[in-house]
Amino acid sequence: MAEALKSLPPSTHPDLLVGFNKADDAGVFRISESLALVQTVDFFPPIVDDPYWFGQIAAANALSDVYAMGGRPITALNIVGFPKGTLDSSILTEILRGGADKVIEAGAVIVGGHSINDKELKYGISVTGLIDPNRILTNSGAQVGDVLFLTKRLGTGLITTGIKRDLVGDDLALIAIEEMAKLNRIASELMVSHGAHAATDITGYGLMGHTLEMAEGSGVTIRLFSAELPQLPEVLALAEAGMIPGGANANREYLEGRYRVEGEVDPNLIHLVFDPQTSGGLLIAVPEANADAFGETLRSHALPHAPVGRVEALGDKAIVIE
To answer: Which domains does the chain have, with CATH numbers?
Structure first.
């Protein structure tokens, strides 16, 4: 998409506060001095076999874009590509039920949608949210000295690859599915109340790709603490066994020359930071003065709470891993 948009002029309007030219999680349009709309859309093919879980995961993934900006979702539209005549309509019913339940959990409402006959099943939602235009969090506001937190565990790409190759048991598969279906609602509310400077959600570009966007957008270097990264069970063993998604290799190739590894870092942790996530957590940059209180509040809500990095003055690389 980014490549296709290069030759097109960016949208301009005095009330367009965040547009597609900023590589941010959602667009923001001001409708008054105290109110703005946050809008996003996301959809993809199934990543799990159960249609109800797939609907929940796809909806949580799209809602996360609004949460990453510090917004509150209010409405959603279903987007469906369905192979009519190939799959039973009950499958679509379960997908839509899963999506609807997750939207309701977010405090929003589904107001309609659109479907097409497609050879490949796809589902997602378009979300509209509300936000105070004076309190928007983008991925380009990180400041030197900020402390970074990541609010979901990494490794969903490794686990789903292991599932496809019949190397992951039902218990671990369920752990990963439940992680992907979790909303980032609480983390979003907490980061706003603790004065976060920047945030983004971790999805297909992996932790490294989205960290790069934050670092380059903010004009800083971000140092990641590999030993503190929250991870799902068994993911390092899966990396060791070669359960590396194709997207992870693409992410690694894209970031070549833009990061540096310092010291002895487990090679499987390097695989993990490039692992493409589906409906991952929020990467949040919090002022150092607020970091202890923010971490403690995350802990009280049973969310990953150890600092995973810090923001430094711009150096020779956008990202340093230690």
So the answer is: 2-131 (3.30.1330.10), 147-321 (3.90.650.10)
